[in-house]
Amino acid sequence: MSQFRVLAGVLKGGGSPLLRWRAGGLTWRCWAHPKRGCSSRTDPLPAVVSNSSYVEEMYLTWLDDHKNVHESWDSFFHNIQASGPSGEADERRPSALLQGRVLSHSLDVAEKVVEDHLAVHTLIRAYQIRGHHVAQLDPLGILDADLDSFVPSDLITTIDKLGLYGLDESDLDRSFQLPHTTFIGGQEATLPLKEIIRRLEASYCGHIGVEFMFINNVNQCQWIRQKFETPGIMQFTNAEKRTLLARLIRSTRFEDFLARKWSSEKRFGLEGCEVLIPALKTIIDKSSAAGIDSVIMGMPHRGRLNVLANVIRKDLDQIFCQFDPKLEAADEGSGDVKYHLGMYHERINRETDKNITLSLVANPSHLEAVDPVVQGKTKAEQFYRGDTQGKKVMSILMHGDAAFAGQGVVYETFHLSELPSYTTNGTIHVVVNNQIGFTTDPRVARSSPYPTDVARVVNAPIFHVNADDPEAVMYVCRVAAEWRATFNKDVVIDLVCYRRFGHNEMDEPMFTQPLMYKQIHRQEHVLKKYSEKLIAEGVVTLQEFEEEVAKYDKICEEAYTSSKDEKILHIRHWLDSPWPDFFTAQGEPKSMSCLPTGLDEEVLQHIGQIASSVPLEDFNIHPGESGCFMPENKAVRQRITDWQNLLRFGSLLTSTLVELHTDRRSHRHHVLHDQEVDKRICVPMNHLWENQASYTVCNSSLSEYGVVGFELGFAMANPNALILWEAQFGDFHNTAQCIIDQFISSGQAKWVRNNGIVLLLPHGMEGMGPEHSSARPERFLQMTKDDPDHIPEFTGDFEVQQLYDCNWIVVNCSTPANYCHVLRRQILLPFRKPLIIFTPKSLLRHPDARSGFDDLAKGTKFKRLIPDEGPASQSPGQVKRVIFCAGKVYYELAKERKQQNLDRDVAIIRLEQISPFPFDLVSEEVEKYTNAELVWCQEEHKNMGYYDYVRPRFLTVVANKKPIWYVGRDPAAAPATGNKSTHLNELRKFMDTAFNMSSFQD
Ligand SMILES: Cc1ncc(C[n+]2csc(CCOP(=O)(O)OP(=O)(O)O)c2C)c(N)n1
Ligand SMILES: [Mg+2]
Q: Where do the Transketolase-like pyrimidine-binding domain residues begin and end (predicted)?
């Protein structure tokens, strides 16, 4: 016990004695006071003092009545007496006793008492910190959930380990004062050591392993200790046990039924973790009781059909008919496999009798990609309902063990969990930890002990639980729901289970995991074990159990029969986010035209005035910022607008919520920061009109994958919001590629749901090097679905029809007015499509790149193509060359043309909407300049930018009768040179080509 030495005892200012000693490498302090006892940094401890009169006085007081002193001193004096010769316990000769025993004879004994108490407290703490390492978490009994067979040396797994604490077997019956950091005593303040160890083992080393001592909030730690240590707290009524059994029956028999009917179909069954269904239902019941009425869920493949059937309660026949390969799809698009589809369902929660809406968000195969999407959707629903605390709407995320540990987006999502603009006020995570990922053993799949360690970064408690103990699982679910309701923070449930079959039903797992699967073959089913337990306890009879099984089997059979009546498959019935008022009852747009995007002069003036003012009184803006406002004011007088103006957002705010997620400098003046008052901000655009919609501009964590997923989820919740994500530089979008490919580009085709998210991607070749130059337009264009070889019919409102038919819209606006119009069109369309905008960098400050108010006035609209309006357009027959281009290169071309005096010979036409390709407008231009050569000019390299996309479409327009010449940079691997002069030389070279009238003669 050398580490628990009392170092010194001193008197603090003549009052209570101050004790200091070192324990476990820390210096502890303790003020001895008769009533308060020994208050220390953590636990009240019995103290030894060298100040005899003080202790003597206290001892006399204690002899009068043991209650006169604090219980720690009471315990101390009892121990002193107990350790003295027998027969002296009642002796009332304090001075002699103290001098004779406490002070001279018993100092050593007292020191030992202190040491022993400290030791016991340390022991308790050891269990709280490390008990989970020896908890019996693996239902198979062969694996270590923490990947380590090592047993912490400070847990009393054998009697000899008491020696570490300076204790031995003879101390087992001695009573010890319990610190206030434990609840194992229940009503008891002291317990024999034997009982202390027994209770700690029961709390921390049984079928539940609680990982929480890393949490740096004392109250939260106390809360968890109380939930797991209080004797008898894990009790279930017979009714609760019966409900649990019934849910386990449904879960198990559902998988059995699918296996029987479709033995060779992939379904990613839940066998080995059937307890997931009752677990989720318990979380939902408890959350519903706490006031939650909407739960948004995200989950991977494993057990998904079961969750749809038994948690969300999708009609079984609808699920079963998905197995019919002959059913024809009623909806357009690719559709998706049954274990990716989403769902939305409103029902009554049977336990609470309250309404609850459950939605499961559709997801791609890409594991964990749905996590931030669920968070965004949850945040949006909380926002629209004014649920700032997350008391009504919450999210549940399910994970596989391998994916949870391996996928970086899990970490990104955790990092959003406590940010003001992103928090959903606590997510409950449930990990189906079957201790395998496809064929990969966890020992080669992760470096952390548990698959859940990533959650520790946000101080989320982690409850590991043996999934073959259904009551233990229900208990942690109950605690997790209470935790979320109490602290509004994330929590993780790690269901340690196994996978009875292969990864899918076709796999043979014995090839790769022979020993594990030998054990699995011997493993009794959890339903069998639990039903036998309840029958033995007399909670249900065998007959009742069998009747319940037969009842559910019959439900499945009946649904199977009626599923055969289904003739057609409606993916629409699997929508996770319906927008009932936005579409017709059949889910179609209410019209096929767009409201005008031009604006009244008064509106423009008003927004301009507000944008150039500070609407809050006594608001101290930075002197540098006043410069930003004054020009805007001047601009309003002159009726012009530049790129940084707020008109585009302000004009939408009459009815539309605008959310801009950005960390770009160009938008920083949208939020003003008071220079004198911390955290006081002013968003001028929120001071436009009474009852206007809100304008939110937020910074985010430095993540793209997570944040873009979140914005997509936010945009999913409601069509009447303009959600914009702005990359710092356009090329950073590639770390969010999974969200772009799997959700934004193809989401509607797979899941028939619209999404109007806007990606603002700064793009432009400005000599800034290979990074930061290109937002990779070629990638977006390559994924557009419009046919390059076919000219669509120009009927009805062609512009809108084309937008309706495409999978996303790609634009590069060369004027602020067009930028404003395209955003307004985005929200005024009768449907929603993702919009990708390549936004300017240096062009932000370009003197020519300004628009007059007239370009935004009533009657104006977004220009998909900006024709040449100069001398060339006056006499088109004489024009020798037409240069089509997109984006900022227009200004370089226009300048060069002027310098070379070629205004009559060369027309320059801007393609503002690149995709869907404006076949109608391009055809008009091509027909107008009949004698001219056609050129596509871009500043990007030939294998990048727009060329590969526009070329076949131009050729289709001219019916392959004319070439479309390329002018731009040569093909390259890197998007731009890192050398400024090379950059300028390249520019010079292709400008020369563009205006050399004999460039293409040979
Ligand atoms: C991002 C991504 N990479 C790879 C895969 C292929 N894959 C599908 S399931 C799976 C194993 C998942 O293991 P785990 O997360 O433990 O879930 P389990 O199947 O065991 O429930 C893999 C690698 C995928 N779907 N997504
Ligand atoms: Mg797994």
A: 634-846
